[in-house]
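Our working data are protein records whose layout never changes between entries. Instead of coordinates, the fold is spelled out as a row of discrete tokens. Here is such a record, shown just as it appears in the course material:
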Amino acid sequence: MMLDLGPFSSENFDPKKWINSECQTRHPQDSLDKHLVDLEMKLQMVSEEIAASLEEQSTAALLRVPRATRDVFRLRDDAVSLRSSISGILQKLKKAEGSSAESIAALAKVDIVKQRMEAAYETLQDAAGLTQLSSTVEDVFASGDLPRAAETLANMRHCLSAVGEVAEFANIRKQLEVLEDRLDSMVQPRLTDALSNRKVDVAQDLRGILIRIGRFKSLESQYTKVHLKSTKKLWEDFDLKQRANKSANEKNETERLLSGGEFHSVSPTMSFFSWLPSFYDELLLYLEQEWKWCMIAFPEDYKILLPKLLTEIMMAIGASFISHINLAIGDAVPETKALAKGLLDILSGDMQKGIKIQTKHLEALIELHNITGTFARNIQHLFSDSDVQVLTDVLKAVYSPYESFKQRYGQMERAILSSEIAGVDLRGAVIRGVGAQGIELSETVRRMEESIPQVIVLLESAVERCINFTGGSEADELILALDDIMLQYISSLLETLKSLRTVCGVDPSSDGPLKKEMEKKDGNQNARRADLISNEEEWSIVQGALQILTVSDSLTSRSSVFEASLRATLARLSTSLSISVHGSNIDQNQTTSGIEDGEFSFSGRAALDVAALRLIDVPEKARKLFNLLNQSKDPRFHALPLASQRVAAFADTVNELVYDVLISKVRQRLSEVSRLPIWSSAEEQSAFHLPTFSAYPQTYVTSVGEYLLTLPQQLEPLAEGISNSDNNDEAQFFATEWMFKVAEGATALYIEQLRGIQYISDRGAQQLAVDIEYLSNVLSALSMPIPPVLATFQTCLSTPRNQLKELVKSDSGNQLDLPSANLVCKMRRVNLDP
């Protein structure tokens, strides 16, 4: 039976575990002692075998040591011999290197001399040839062989560059320039004819001549000049049709006047909106045909010639284009159409007072811009093989007529929004007679609440217009305009709140009908307002005031949602623009026109975005916009910082107004409590033993208590509407929060009045204790804790006068509020001094 020696080589070998595992493998019929004896015997035998093997191998190894030592000595001697041989070889190489270096240096000098001699020889030949060419060039021109003349001039140019700035050849240099101009002028008529009549072979030959003498610009200029005439006719077609229609209508009007008949327009005036797409279609068709011809005639240059042609076309019609855009925008609105004025006239102030920029003006401008945008996309597809820089310049030219409008976009949008906000129905509340305040309050609050979604829609439309017209390049100006407009709107809301304070009767400076009626009543100016307003009217005012909270909640939530949407728009804009910062070493595939030395650049096809086309040439504006887009990625960023602060201020103002309205009835009922005569009344003499005070609380406190108990019923419906969900807990929390706020305010006012009582008799103390107990019960019913001050007043007032001193002395501040207890003692004329 073999023994597995594998476990013994393990680092974690445990003898106990190994013995136990071996015992578990024994046959069930074998005894444990016998199995252990066998195992011990096996281990001893294996140990002896290992020892014998180790001894045998050790002996063999000892026998091999002398042989290995001799081999090592022999290898060491061979290494020493090899090292000396290599050293000798290296010395020979160094000697050879030194001599060869000297030889190579000498050969290099000889080669330089040879090159200079060859250059001198060639220069002498060029000089000789230049003289010969100068003397024979007139004969070449006289022969009329233009290719030969171009070759001769090219050789002269080459010879002049070879001889350098030699004074003897200065006249020839001037002669060459004159001859090149002469040859250029000879080529131009033929090139014009070839381009006009589509002569491919002739055009190619003439191009070769101009390229040979370095006059590619002449080819570019002549090509543009020939086709510019044809394309300008397409543009002038609109003015021709307009004049024809005008002349026909004037003729018809003259005939009508002579015949006494009715006037009928021969043909309606053509709209620029309907004509511009057809112009773009015809121009695009012309360019497509020319693109195909140029691919055959000028296969090396068509990617440059056609974009250059379109750029020149847009520059030629630019001023007229802007004028037509301006008048077309004016025609979109009857007021400016009647004056034959446009958007630029309004912006410059050259208009009658009262004529303002309207949304239709900007919508008309965007419509024209969208038409141009469609044409620009077609051009981008047509010129897709051209270089990005070339294509960028072309698209800039296509959009250039709108640049003056885009530069003033912020001014336009601000004027439009300001006019629209001014048109929102936010007239303040008008003070009406008694019985109508609740209706006026409700109507005013309704107008305020309905105006909020209207204003948000106006702001969202402005954002959409900015993206549609400028591609977002004016986002920074738009945000400033939106912030200012929101401030204007919230200021209007705050002004309306001021008028509501007067209607609600919580403005101390108000001089409304209520005050006048109070002054008329028996000449008593201190008549209570409650005598003039019915209970229903009071509750209608309370309901109207509570409804203002929905205005505040709506403004806060909607402005927050709009601001979040604005941040998302800025994030999308950042992605679409693909703005990146580059150093001085900018990749060649990136467009960097006008932006250098680490300024902003737009990578690849991102430069063809309508916004990027503008920002490429205005790095300062690009940096400003880029900073804004970077900031918008921060969750703490406020797109409308000033408006956000003003919204919070508006909410605080609303809460203050609502609280003043809710507490006003309490303030009225408690205003004279400290001066009630009952507090100082003496006990009435009677033959019977009767209570000297009323067992019931007085009217002033019961009216306050009833008001507080009824208030939750008024708050809960409003709370459910504001929470805008099925979560009853949120609605209950809202109602409870306001309930506690009003109850705490009422308690504070009551305590203030109690502290104002100068003297109170025993009868008055007992009555006041009943009143305080009633109010305490009301507070308990509202789940409010009883303030220690109020509890102290009740305890000290309900205690007999002769026991009050002992009560205060024995309490020592454990249950009573000592300052309030001392004050009650002072009211009841109890001396606490010993």
Observations:
- The two ends are 115 Å apart (CA to CA).
